[in-house]
Each structure stands twice: as structure tokens, then as C-alpha cells.
Design goal:
By secondary structure, this protein is of the alpha/beta class. Among the domains are: about 140 residues, Rossmann fold (3-Layer(aba) Sandwich), CATH 3.40.50.980; about 130 residues, ANL, C-terminal domain (GMP Synthetase, Chain A, domain 3), CATH 3.30.300. Helices cover about 35% and strands about 20% of the residues. A hairpin with a 7-residue loop joins β1 and β2. α6 packs across α7, α6 crosses α10 and α8 packs across α9. The chain starts with a helix and ends with a helix. The relative contact order is 0.10. The structure holds 5'-O-[(S)-butoxy(hydroxy)phosphoryl]adenosine. The site of 5'-O-[(S)-butoxy(hydroxy)phosphoryl]adenosine has 21 residues, from α12, β20, β24 and β25.
């Protein structure tokens, strides 16, 4: 009974907040904010390249750049090209040299409650050793190194050791399947892979090395697999190819000076989903990328490195982890929390328990996680003391105002500004976001472009800027330092994808958006065949080809459907071979098949058996109609269909399905 009362009070409170249009930065926050004066926007606008150069100069370079932007060959831009630096030196050595070696870089927490504090000096030591170990194995400047690791400190060591010797890393998110790892290693011709014996999954162990072995045998480019021992999972070590991380570490020399690299030296490749079935290898380089992530991490999160405890709950396997767990925070000498596990293991309040335990002051997460917490109930949050929190952030998908307000009230105690940060794997850095000491926020809007960034909304046909309120395509009209430099080994695809629709100087984002009367940006969502499930980016074409590779499937079409928990969910229309019948067993089989092909998180939530799919006369599947039908909308124009009857058959199916659910 008591609980009922609390929740209806909360409802009433949230309804009250729903009436508020704008949330001003709280006075106590402004007083201590690094930026509290609007003039930073004007200053950056007056000379945007000069502003970025000033941001670059905050980094510790071996040789400071004198050049800013080289735009002589768009869209192949270069930033700070005559500067020399090393990402690992910036993330480690500079802090140790400044006497901050004893500062904790990560409070690491394992799934079963283990704790390890890693200082900047600890990581400096381990990274040097591991960099030497990589060199011993014959890996050097320019070689691609795959990393497939869970959220353990070794993943940071591995990334920075690669950076130290100038070997670009290619991290694959631990939730992807071994097949996906193989594909990404093959595309990038990786020379080595760093992985783990087993990964912990809510009290169970997944045999990662075994899975990797099952697909990697014939991939000749991989000369070595380095295995971190983390669990008791059994794994075979192949002679001559496989080595244990702890053994090579033990043997390695302790000193390894960081290579002095050109600003445009590749730092990493990160594969992301595009609108075709083939993932895109987004390439980021060093000087501009670090400038972009360090500047945004400092000012968007108002980081006071000697006071704050920062926690970004993402996985390092996504760009959020690269930019805002590793490179941004470490360049700024931040103290962070790193958590191995899931938000509901060992209990649904674990995040808030850890916030209390480590005194987290800045917390950055995804809207889908916030919605899960709302569902689990406020009591899991309220058990813990979150008074130290002073700033909250979100990323990955549009946040619905209700979730925003709940986050503001229940987690932030109505005193923490929320920064809704819009960006992408390709942009490398946060692009549209409030500055928390300056900008009044509106729930659901990412507000304004970061200083130095230029964005606008244009019409689809001519690329003309739209009036306030009109929805259109989001574009970026200037280069920015952390932008992708190309798609790895696919320059043509890079141009075609991002710089062909409106010319070589306008970056096509792939999101729909609108600006309101006050100039606030509202991101609507993807306009291509990319789906966003729980903030994870997926290509419908990739899921389709996984489904079609099942032997009982003749044809499939995949769409994203709105979902109140995960933002979007995968819905698949499947036509079976011959006269096979769609059963619930087969449905499960197909879901598992997709899981093992791409990764569990990509399994379709809903499968609809279809006798046929709606196609144009030229044989193209009309996904628009499938989206309408799945969302229960009135069907648009069906006259261009080869066989209009297909749609009425499908409609009947959906109606029958709904009747069953009711
Ligand atoms: C796509 C990029 C950026 C790191 C995580 C995702 C969507 C991202 C927001 C936001 C509305 C957002 C966009 C974008 N997105 N942040 N704050 N509001 N939408 O990176 O996997 O490259 O996906 O995520 O659709 O294009 P990603």
C-alpha cells in the first residue's frame, strides 16, 4: 500500500514537471561551472578554426601544430597536420609527469563484487609492458590489432598499448558473435587479436576463446591471438599462434617510450552498421580526434578532474566507450568508474549502489537504460544516497520527456542539469548538446551545436535550409576535428555515403530532425535502414541476410518498429521455403540463428510469417508498407505493388496475431 502511494505521488510530481518548458542551469551549478558565460559561443563563431586550435593546444603535444584545418581536398580533411603527439602519452605520461600518477583512473568493479583501483601510474606501467609485448610479437606501427574483450581493465591497457606503438586498434563489442569478430578482422586484415578465455554473463561464463577458435582457424592474416585469463573457461592454446597475456607481460621490458606520431596517424577503426549488410570501418586519427573528445569531455561534463568521479555506463566496444570512457576522460586526467556487469546483476539497484560507493558526481547513460530503471521501480534507486551527483548525461537515441523528467527527479534530485548529447560513431565527438552551466534545457531536445560546430536542417530534395518547426534532414556544414577521415579501405563508399547528396562540404548525418522557434534541435531518428535498438546501431540488411542464411527461409524483410522499452525493436517478415509451416519452435530457431550470426542483442523481437512480401514491379521490397502494417497504421499507396493482394493477406495475419495477444 505504501508503495502505491509513493508511485502515485511520483506520477503527480512528474506531471507537474511536464508543465515546465525549460530547465535553467541551477545557480549552485553555474557558480562552479567551467563555462557559465554565453560568450564562448560567440567567440567560437568569430573564428571557429581558431577556437579548435585553442582546444588542440590544451593537449600535450610532442610538437605543437601551427596548421589548423587543411581543406584542400574535401571531403578528405586534415586537422593540425604538422603536429606530433601520441594518444597513450596524452592519456598517461603527461599525468604521471605532472605528479598525478597516484590519481585513480578507474575504480573497476567486477560482476561478482571484486574491486580494483587502477591509478594512472599503474596503467602507465602496464601499458608500457604490453606495448613491448606487442612489439616482441612482431606488431608495429600501422598494423591493425583486433580487440574482443569484456569490460575489464585489460581492455584499456590493450587500447592504449596499441596507440603507444601506432598500431590502430579495431575493437569489437563483446556482445557481437564470433562470426562478426571474424568478419571485422578479415575486412581490416588484422594482424593480431586480443581476447579473453571467458566472459562473465550474470553468474554464467561464456567460452569466448573457444567461440573465437571455431571461426578463426583459416584467417591467415591473424598471426597471434593474445588471451587474457579472466575466468576458468577452458580454452586451447594453439602452438605458435596463441599466447597468454600474463605470460607475455611478465617477460616484457618495463620501458616503452611513446612513438611520436603525426596528428593524422590512424588511431583506430571501429565498425558500425550502415544501410547495406556490410559494416563500415569508421577510421579515426589522432590529433583532431583527441582535441574533439578532450574538449567536449571537459566542457559538456564540466569536468573538475581533481574533484569529480565520472561514470559512463557504456561498453568500451562502442564509440561512446572509446571517446568517453577511454580517450576523453583519460586525456583530461579524470577518475572514472568502470563496471563489468549488467545493470540488473546482482540486483536492479547495482548502478546506484556503485554511485554511492564511489561518490559518483557525473553519470552518463542511455535513455533505454533509464526506461528499464523506471520499469524496475523507484525503490531500487531510492535505497542509495546519490547526493554527490551533480550532472547527468544521456546518449544514443532521442529521450522521451517522461524518461528525462524521471531521470531529473528520481536520480538527479532536481538539482542536476541533464546533457542530452547527440553524436555518432562517425562524428567521434559530441556534436549537439547543452553546455550545462549556460544552456537552458528542454526535455527531449539535444539543444544546440557545441561551440565551433555548425549544423542545420535542410529539405530532402534541394538541401535548402528549413523554417523552424519543419522536419527535414540533419546536416553538418563544416568539418570538425574528430570527424571520421574515411571508411577503412572504402574511400568511394565514404564519399557516397556522407558527402554525395549535398556535395563534398556538407556531411549527411542520416538522421531526421527539426529546429524549433528558439533554435533548439530535436532529433527525430534515422532516415535510412539503420535501426536503433537500446542505443545499439543495427542494419536491417545485416539482420535480413542472417535470417535468409537459415536453410528453411526463402526470403525476409526486416524493419525497425517503435518499442517503448528499447526505442526501436527488430521486426522480421519471413517467407519460408516450400510449404513449411511457421511454428513457434522455428521462430526460436531463427532468432537463435541471428543471435549466433551477429550477436544476441540483434535477435528479432517479432517474427511475422508471410506467404509473400510486398514488392514493386521491379522486385524491390517496400519496407515502408511493412513499417505501416507493423505499427498498425493505415496503409499508404499500394498501387505500385506487383501484387496488391499480398498486403491484405499480411493485414489479416497481423489482425489474427493481435487477437491472440488480447
Ligand atoms: C545514431 C548514432 C553517439 C554514441 C552512441 C550511438 C542516434 C545518438 C542521440 C541523441 C537522439 C541520438 C542518432 C545517431 N543518437 N545520440 N542524443 N538523441 N538520437 O552511436 O551507434 O553511431 O549511432 O544514434 O540516430 O545517428 P551510433
Amino acid at each position: 500500500m505504501a508503495r502505491m502511494e509513493t508511485s502515485s505521488n511520483l506520477e503527480a510530481e512528474l506531471d507537474r514537471l511536464l508543465e515546465i518548458e525549460r530547465f535553467d542551469p541551477p545557480e549552485e551549478f553555474r557558480e562552479h561551472a567551467l563555462l557559465a558565460d554565453r560568450s564562448v559561443y560567440e567567440e567560437a563563431e568569430r573564428d571557429w578554426q581558431g577556437w579548435w586550435l585553442s582546444q588542440a593546444k590544451e593537449l600535450s603535444w610532442f610538437k605543437e601544430p601551427t596548421e589548423t584545418l587543411d581543406d584542400s581536398d574535401p571531403p578528405f580533411y586534415k586537422w593540425f597536420a604538422d603536429g606530433k603527439l601520441n594518444a597513450s602519452h596524452i592519456c598517461l605520461d603527461q599525468h604521471v609527469e605532472a605528479g598525478n600518477g597516484e590519481r585513480v583512473a578507474f575504480h573497476w568493479r567486477g560482476e561478482e563484487g571484486e574491486e580494483r583501483d587502477l591509478t594512472y601510474a599503474d596503467l602507465h606501467r602496464d601499458v608500457q609492458r604490453f606495448a613491448n609485448a606487442l612489439k616482441e610479437l612482431g606488431i608495429g606501427k600501422g598494423d591493425i590489432v583486433g580487440i574482443y574483450l569484456p569490460m575489464i581493465p585489460e581492455v584499456v591497457v590493450a587500447m592504449l598499448a596499441c596507440a603507444r606503438i601506432g598500431a590502430p586498434h579495431n575493437v569489437v563489442f563483446g556482445g557481437f558473435s564470433a562470426d562478426s569478430v571474424r568478419e571485422r578482422m578479415e575486412f581490416s586484415e588484422a594482424k593480431a587479436l586480443i581476447t579473453v578465455d571467458g566472459a562473465r554473463r550474470k553468474g554464467k561464463t561464456a567460452p569466448i576463446k573457444q567461440q573465437v577458435d571455431s571461426v578463426m582457424a583459416d584467417l591467415d592474416t591473424i598471426e597471434h591471438i593474445i588471451v587474457v585469463k579472466h575466468t576458468d573457461a577452458e580454452c586451447e592454446m594453439k602452438d605458435g599462434r596463441d599466447v597468454w597475456y600474463h605470460e607475455v607481460m611478465e617477460k616484457a621490458d618495463t620501458e616503452c617510450p611513446a612513438e611520436e606520431l603525426d596528428a593524422e596517424h590512424p588511431l583506430y577503426v571501429l565498425y558500425t552498421s550502415g544501410s547495406t549488410g556490410k559494416p563500415k570501418g569508421v577510421l579515426h586519427t589522432t590529433g583532431g580526434y583527441l582535441t574533439g573528445v578532450a574538449s567536449t569531455h571537459r566542457y559538456v561534463f564540466d569536468l573538475h578532474p581533481d574533484e569529480d568521479v565520472y561514470w559512463c555506463s557504456a561498453d568500451v566496444g562502442w564509440v561512446t566507450g572509446h571517446s568517453y570512457i577511454v580517450y576523453g576522460p583519460m586525456a583530461n586526467g579524470a577518475t572514472s568508474v568502470m563496471f563489468e556487469g549488467a545493470p540488473d546483476y546482482p540486483h536492479k539497484g547495482i548502478w546506484w549502489e556503485l554511485c554511492e560507493r564511489y561518490g559518483v558526481t557525473i553519470f552518463y547513460t542511455a535513455p533505454t537504460a533509464i526506461r528499464a530503471c523506471i520499469k524496475w521501480g523507484t525503490e531500487h534507486v531510492e535505497k542509495f544516497n546519490l547526493d554527490k551527483l551533480r550532472l547527468l548525461g544521456t546518449v544514443g537515441e532521442p529521450i522521451n520527456p517522461k524518461a528525462w523528467l524521471w531521470y531529473h527527479k528520481v536520480v538527479g534530485g532536481e538539482r542536476c542539469p541533464i546533457v542530452d548529447t547527440w553524436w555518432q560513431t562517425e562524428t567521434g565527438q559530441i556534436m549537439i548538446t547543452p553546455l550545462p552551466g549556460i544552456v537552458s534545457t528542454k526535455p527531449g531536445s539535444a539543444t544546440f551545436p557545441y561551440p565551433g560546430i555548425a549544423a542545420t536542417v535542410v529539405d530532402e530534395r534541394e538541401g535548402k535550409e528549413l523554417e523552424p518547426g519543419e522536419p527535414g534532414l540533419l546536416v553538418l556544414t563544416r568539418p570538425w576535428p574528430a570527424m571520421l577521415r574515411t571508411l577503412y579501405r572504402e574511400d568511394e563508399r565514404f564519399i557516397e555515403q556522407y558527402f554525395s547528396k549535398f556535395g563534398k562540404e556538407t556531411y549527411l548525418v542520416g538522421d531526421g530532425a527539426r529546429k524549433d522557434e528558439d533554435g533548439y534541435f530535436w532529433i527525430i531518428g534515422r532516415i535510412d535502414d539503420v535501426v536503433n535498438v537500446s542505443g545499439h546501431r543495427l542494419s536491417t540488411a545485416e539482420v535480413e541476410s542472417a535470417i535468409v542464411s537459415h536453410q528453411k527461409v526463402a526470403e525476409a524483410a526486416v524493419i525497425g518498429q517503435s518499442d517503448e522499452d528499447t526505442g526501436q525493436a527488430i521486426c522480421a517478415f519471413v517467407t519460408l521455403e516450400g510449404d513449411l509451416e511457421g511454428t513457434s519452435e522455428l521462430e526460436q530457431e531463427i532468432r537463435d540463428h541471428v543471435g549466433s550470426r551477429i550477436g544476441k542483442f540483434t535477435r528479432p523481437k517479432r517474427i511475422i510469417w508471410a506467404d509473400d512480401l510486398p514488392k514493386t514491379r521491379s522486385g524491390k521490397i517496400m519496407r515502408r508498407l511493412l513499417r505501416d502494417i507493423a505499427e498498425g497504421r493505415a496503409l499508404g499507396d499500394v498501387t505500385t505493388l506487383r501484387d496488391p493482394d499480398v498486403m491484405s493477406q499480411l493485414e489479416d495475419k497481423i489482425k489474427a496475431e493481435q487477437a491472440e495477444d488480447d
